[in-house]
Design goal:
single chain; about 90 residues; elongated
Length: about 90
């Protein structure tokens, strides 16, 4: 397949670094979203139930991509780099 041939020159460390950088970018955006949500909930007069549900949904929607990104990095690191060191 042409994609396999195109990606052969990419080193293992570059591939794992890509997943790590994407995880860090997701972490930064997730932190901004949670801080912004807390600020909005404090400044607005939202009820306790609606505020709690909104906060919970935001945390879940932020946690899923973060866990996914961390999993991809760990998978890459173990499969490509861990095989040589074990």
């Amino acid at each position: 397949m042409w994609l396999d041939e195109a990606l052969k020159p990419v080193s293992n460390s570059s591939l794992c670094t890509w997943f790590y950088v994407m995880f860090m970018i997701n972490l930064i955006f997730a932190s901004i979203m949670v801080i912004r949500l807390v600020y909005m909930l404090v400044k607005s007069k939202v009820g306790l139930v609606l505020g709690s549900v909104t906060f919970l949904l935001t945390v879940v929607s932020v946690a899923v991509p973060l866990v996914n990104g961390a999993f991809f990095y760990a998978l890459c690191d173990r499969s490509l780099n861990g095989a040589n060191s074990s």
